Amino acid sequence: MDEIKALLSKDAIITENSQQARELAEKSSYGKIMPDGRIRLCWLEAVYLAEKQKLTVLDGRNKQVSYEELCSKAAKKEHDFWTRYPVFRDFRSRGYVIKTALKFGADFRVYDRGFKPGEEHAKWIVYPVKESATMTWQEFAAKNRVAHSTKKKLLMAVVDDEGDVSYWEVRWLRP
Fold first, then answer.
1. What is the pTM of this model?
2. Where are the chain's structural domains?
3. Class of CATH domain 4-77
4. Catalytic residue at 152?
5. CA pair distance 55, 45, nearest whole angstrom
6. Fold exhibited by the domain 81-170
């Protein structure tokens, strides 16, 4: 498969209008399909696809943006990029579809393997946290309440200093 080309603008990464790009969106649930057939990718998706050598990102002068430069730009634009990206990468590499979950008040929503947004509801909402981070009981309870009220399981994705991720599933129980 040839690498898909994408243009890096000030706030977006937008692919070329190609069958390959549309298949990436339709079959693997990357980005959003725009009216002109191009795909708008979020920073996490673009970095992941560039890392997997499926995406070549070009700047406004048609010069290739290196993977390191793309990560640097993403870290400036994307909140808590170095905590969130390892979680995104881990889920995608395991075959899950992972999308943002702002409307749920979480970082991500994750669909079970084989399911896509629009076909099935997300199984989990995910909060990436640094291993060294602290959280109050009120913050923890609020995250659990959001998961419970949206009928999703809560996953706390704990990222250590090496970028390795451990998951803790949290749920309400009635004794």
1. 0.93
2. 4-77, 81-170
3. alpha beta
4. yes
5. 10
6. Trna Endonuclease; Chain: A, domain 1 (3.40.1350)
